[in-house]
Amino acid sequence: MAKTAGIIVIGNEILSGKTRDENALFLVRELRDLGVDVRKISVIPDELPLISHEVREFSRAYDYVFTTGGVGPTHDDLTMDGIAAAFDQKVKRQPELEQTLRRYYSADVIEANLRMADVPEGARLVGGYGAWFPVVAVENVFIFPGVPEILQRKFERIKEMFREAPFHLREVYLRADEGQIAAILHQLLAEYPDLMLGSYPYFDNPIYSIKLTLESKDAAYLDRAHQALLDQLAAIHLFPLL
Amino acid sequence: MAKTAGIIVIGNEILSGKTRDENALFLVRELRDLGVDVRKISVIPDELPLISHEVREFSRAYDYVFTTGGVGPTHDDLTMDGIAAAFDQKVKRQPELEQTLRRYYSADVIEANLRMADVPEGARLVGGYGAWFPVVAVENVFIFPGVPEILQRKFERIKEMFREAPFHLREVYLRADEGQIAAILHQLLAEYPDLMLGSYPYFDNPIYSIKLTLESKDAAYLDRAHQALLDQLAAIHLFPLL
């Protein structure tokens, strides 16, 4: 079984349509490449009880949880408090983070800047030091900022810790109506119950009107299922395009 | 109080990063323009128990629920079954939808095509007839397909039923560090507790480094809060850009 993950996107600006979220898309693609199965994405407001509720549920349900957003110094940055509450922890100032902030802001440092060193008491720092902060993690929850460039740089630094056996993928493109192949797909899944099988209609493509995706971590199993599908399709005179 | 909404995006292809979701972004922008407050977006797999659980929770928590995806004729189209289960209803064939499908497929119609007329027994049809299907709704849940063009056309047809008092928005752009203004924002919210106030850092903009957003459905209240903010900023020699 693949390791599972959940992603919690925290930010009113996403829910009000002011900002397009780029982080969930980045993380699902990266995690898929690493062989991790993302099971859920939630986008929630900057509100402490909602953050702590979601983090608690996700932490129990999935192997890894990734949060994005809400880690700055202002009133709407409640992620650290929410995660602390989820694990019945207090927030306290982390000395190494405080030192990093004092170095960055130098003589101009004020108390509000140092608030970014306030993390759940059980937090650990992963990913070592680079130009900026390490990743803060609590239990199985990895905490990322909302700014895509910073999130991406931080994820790059720790991603190898999540790598496992890859997913293998086959795609089949057809010119047909989904109804025509529904019974074949149903039968294929009865024979290959562990196959991940998707069927997606396209209404505006000049060449194909269905894309089928077949996936498995077991390459041999996937090849057999793929061949079985092609045989079944050929029996009703449907042949893959592209 | 604004009416609230939740959006449930159903589809393995989003969680595996194969497809970028366009529907949640479209819906949050449209709903915001209509004056509706979107409180949560969930992206979940094509699995019946997960769909029914999420729909039940959302239906209780929000005034309106919008689902996207999982309404075709194949094995991975489980939205109708999931929504029926959420309300302890059975799925049954809807005569008007069946008629529409028979007209569309004409002599080629097969049983798998007609599956798209199988909807929860308590479903009603909204939005009337156009070139294609009406929107199917059950209780406060509005069911949309995953194909963005079709979703958008269907939403256009019914959106006026959701319209209410609009949100008013002011934006303030600054060149400063968020830490510098954290206390001012905190104080502003103490004086204007109903203000929706966001603070967003930018690290790569040549002109500004913070965008503040102020929102309310009460335009006069918003104007007073906006002026109070500008006064406070001026007191520490910060002036809006742009």
Helix content of chain A: 25-40%
Q: Give the CATH H-level superfamily of the largest domain in chain A.
A: MoaB/Mog-like domain
Strand content of chain A: 15-25%
User: Briefly, what CATH class of the largest domain in chain A?
Assistant: Alpha Beta
> Remind me, CATH topology of the largest domain in chain A?
Molybdenum Cofactor Biosythetic Enzyme, Chain A
Mean pLDDT of chain A: 94
**Tertiary shape of chain A:** elongated
Low-confidence stretches of chain A: none
Strand order of the largest sheet of chain A: 2-1-3-8-7-6
Count of helical regions of chain A:
9
Q: What is the β-strand count of chain A?
A: 11
Topology order of chain A in helix (H) and strand (E) letters: EHHEHEHEHHEEEEHEHEEH
| Major sheet details of chain A | 6 strands, mixed
In terms of quaternary structure, the protein is homodimer
Shape-level CATH architecture of the largest domain in chain A:
3-Layer(aba) Sandwich
Biggest interface and residues each? A-B, 58 and 59 residues
Q: How does the helix and strand content of chain A classify structurally?
A: alpha/beta
Rg of chain A is 22 Å
Report, as a whole number of angstroms, the end-to-end distance of chain A. 32 Å
Domain unit count of chain A: 2
